[in-house]
Specification:
With 404 residues, the protein is of the alpha/beta class. Helix content is 39%, strand content 17%. It has a domain of 246 residues: Aspartate Aminotransferase, domain 2 (3-Layer(aba) Sandwich), CATH 3.40.640. Bound molecules: pyridoxal-5'-phosphate. Pyridoxal-5'-phosphate binds next to α6.
Length: 404
């Protein structure tokens, strides 16, 4: 929709949102009317350089032509049916995803949090059926983030964080250990633990990549104890970190991996992929969803995955990400620059507030996100160039200088 076609002003839109919507988001004060590749445009055609990409979603660029064409074509032919009949997009996407990442089976969901619900449910059912009724506990990482539905929220190791406060008791069966501390994870596991669940890079937790020792150690420990390794690649998956999946950096394979965000190229989709033996835990009727595997989302995702792979956007993420991270280290007030590929975090010293940096950048038409006190996070489309990084760098530098 274009504002001009509605006869309204941008203030009318803001007023309607404020009057009718339940607002839980801290809004950027501009109206996103259109988008193309690494830019979002407001109703006046003003361009914003988009370094958050719908939070790591528009990896092949906003409104990627092939993704849009696939979605439009599918919308005109078969927009929705339930999961009783076979559909072409589901089958093509299933084969492409499983063959590309070396997993056996896929189950479709609609979002990241739902994918994690499915992952948790599958692990628990596998454990109970294989080992007995008490073997359903899962150890996750402190400062992790897995979503906002009850299972995923309970798996999120941030007691006291805003996303858990006020909702009463979390779901039973989760305990938490410090990220990148292999011994602490081993100590947290008991005879009732069926799985360990982690992000390969903690995004919301401050952009901390897992160490090689931690990932490989967890894989070995899970194998030794008959436990499952569950990897949440909702944010890291599909080329963001410089490999198709972040677990590929570590030379290991999860038993179940969750994904969403970039998979759909802007259409909502989530999924889990599992090893065949673990996937058997889900049988007819044990899990399901009306919209999971939606034909339009699957058709868009199939086009998106092909784009990401054919254009080697993982390679671009690695190359441009390394360039960007090196450059960001020269910012004023910088304490640390961390990341993997184009999942990039910058931590400033105590004098610089990340939310203030975000607003200063917005004012200069660069879109980024802030995490907590002093960390900004960037997850741009993977099509960006070193020149885009130079532009973003100049804006961040000017923003920090304005604050410092
Ligand atoms: C690692 C991780 N897991 C799960 C989620 C939840 O995904 P969604 O917002 O699609 O439910 C997110 C969202 O940011 C995430 O970063």
């Amino acid at each position: 929709m274009k504002l001009a076609d509605t006869g309204l002003t941008s203030q009318d839109i803001k007023d309607k949102v404020s009057k009718y919507m339940i607002e839980t988001y801290e809004r950027f004060d501009f109206l996103a009317e259109t988008a193309k590749d690494q830019y979002i445009y407001d109703e006046n055609g003003e361009a914003y350089l988009d370094f958050y990409a719908g939070i790591a979603v528009n990896s092949a660029g906003s409104c990627n032509e092939k993704v849009v064409a696939a979605a439009v074509e599918q919308t005109k032919t078969l927009m929705h049916t339930f999961n009783y009949p076979y559909t072409i997009p589901q089958a093509l996407l299933a084969e492409k995803v499983c063959e590309t990442i070396g997993m056996d089976k896929i189950f479709y969901q609609n979002s990241g949090t739902e994918a994690n619900e499915a992952m948790i449910k599958m692990a628990r059912k596998y454990g109970i059926e294989k080992y007995g009724p008490n073997r359903y506990h899962i150890v996750t990482a402190k400062m992790g983030f897995h979503g906002r539905t009850f299972g995923a929220m309970s798996a999120t190791g941030q007691p006291g964080n805003g996303c858990q406060i006020g909702f009463g008791p979390m779901a039973y069966g989760f305990s938490y250990a410090p990220y990148n501390d292999l011994q602490a994870f081993k100590d947290a596991c008991t005879e009732n633990t069926i799985a360990v669940m982690i992000e390969p890079v903690q995004g919301e937790g401050g952009v901390h990549p897992a160490t090689m020792e931690f990932m490989k150690g967890l894989r070995e420990f899970c194998d030794e104890k008959g436990m499952l390794l569950l990897i949440d690649e909702v944010q890291t998956g599909w080329c963001r970190t410089g490999k198709v999946m972040s677990f590929m950096h570590y030379g290991i394979k999860p038993d179940i991996v969750s994904m969403a965000k970039a998979l759909g190229g802007g259409m909502p989709i989530g999924a889990i992929c599992a090893k065949a033996e673990v996937a058997k835990a889900f049988t007819a009727g044990s899990h399901g969803t009306t919209f999971g595997g939606h034909p339009v989302s699957c058709a868009a995702a199939f086009a998106q995955v092909n784009e990401l792979l054919d254009r080697d956007l993982a390679g671009n993420a690695e190359k441009v990400g390394n360039y960007f991270m090196e450059k960001l280290k020269t910012l004023p007030h910088v304490k640390d620059v961390r990341g993997q590929g184009l999942l990039v975090g910058v931590e400033f010293d105590d004098s610089i507030n990340a939310v203030d940096v975000k607003h200063e950048c917005l004012h200069r038409h660069l879109l980024i996100t802030a995490i907590g006190g002093h960390i900004i996070r960037m997850v741009p489309p993977l099509i960006i160039t070193e020149e885009d990084c130079d532009k973003a760098y100049d804006i961040i530098k000017a923003s920090v200088e304005a604050l410092g």
